[in-house]
Specification:
homodimer; 211 residues; mainly alpha; Arc Repressor Mutant, subunit A; Tetracycline Repressor, domain 2; 2 domains; 8 helices; 0% strand; DNA-binding; HTH_TetR (chains A, B); Transcriptional regulator, TetR family (chains A, B); transcription regulation (chains A, B); KstR2_TetR_C (chains A, B)
Amino acid sequence: MDRRTEIMTAAGRLFSEAGYHVTSMRDLARAVNLQGGSLYAHIASKEEILFEIVSHAADLFLAGAAAVPPDLPPAERVARLVEAHLAVIAREIGNATVFFHEWRFLSPERKAQIQERRDAYEAYFTRAIADGVETGVFRVEDPRLATLFVLSALNWTYQWYDPAGPIPPDEFARQYAAMVLGALGADGPLTPGPSPRVGEGRSTEHAGGAA
Amino acid sequence: MDRRTEIMTAAGRLFSEAGYHVTSMRDLARAVNLQGGSLYAHIASKEEILFEIVSHAADLFLAGAAAVPPDLPPAERVARLVEAHLAVIAREIGNATVFFHEWRFLSPERKAQIQERRDAYEAYFTRAIADGVETGVFRVEDPRLATLFVLSALNWTYQWYDPAGPIPPDEFARQYAAMVLGALGADGPLTPGPSPRVGEGRSTEHAGGAA
DNA sequence: CCTACCGATCGGTAGG
DNA sequence: CCTACCGATCGGTAGG
């Protein structure tokens, strides 16, 4: 790992733990065994570091969504989008936290650049949900509100999900996707088995669980 | 409105717009037509202001949840909790934003005090969901994860909901509650009408909507 | 990559 | 409630 990458990695951790404004350049320098001023041999400004972290996270989210085949049936597509989203958070919780929590401190130009990518990301969900509403597999009153609901449920996870905790990322994503589909009024489990059985209502597989 | 309240109101707006650390005491003083040092005739420290805002918001959320009758059926109770939560956000979006976004900058003692109230608030949801799982009206795999899902969907709303926007708070809350119940695997519309019809699956009332 | 420094700004206080 | 000030710290730079 070269010095610049080392700085970015440390910054992602510090910014996520203490916040962008609370972390001083001296704090960051100490974390990579440099003197304060020496950082500027590798980076132009504090805000450049923030942008690189946020931009990197945005790319990860976009790449994850772009990898979901757009011709999948809507329910499966939404499930895959949910899983991709949570995979990014599980893998890069620090950078994801900075992405969600500190991006507003970017300069107007850079903020606008990130906003574009956020819009593009959101569009993947908007499309999948609209498709599902059109074909009748989703039953929601307002697709726009439903999209915001789904993104809200996803975006907050960085606040509490611990990839090293008791529930492994895969299991976490699977259950989360099931609840998202429930919120969208989808009929039942989608991945294995035939098309949903009529007259039986929805059922989350292994319903019950703890209690 | 006395001076102290005036300061708190202005601080709620400024902290929510620019962030706690970006807002200086001089910014705040200017907003209430005072000189910087004069603020300290009314408050002890910047952090005291932050605490008062966050504490006030916590009280509002707790009071809203406490007002939901605990003997209601679980589905209706969850719906009422969702509506209460969103009502607070619709009424005090600024303070709610500070509550969610800046509370971590409190001193350890004050942070712990708020954490207690957050836990108590979360417990209302945990109980309602556990009750619903027990009685079989909710079908989720892991009640703990389901609770976190619901709170995530709610907690993020301060980021995008505009009470003055196109969708009025009541309508917003009603649709949001329907999606939450869907995520919990509840069977259908709950408020009006008889118990859910068997053999018809779930349906959000007026399913379809825009598209 | 370090040393030494810059001007600016911070939260908070004394004294009236 | 104002004026004037405090020490501390900030991001960033020059010169080597």
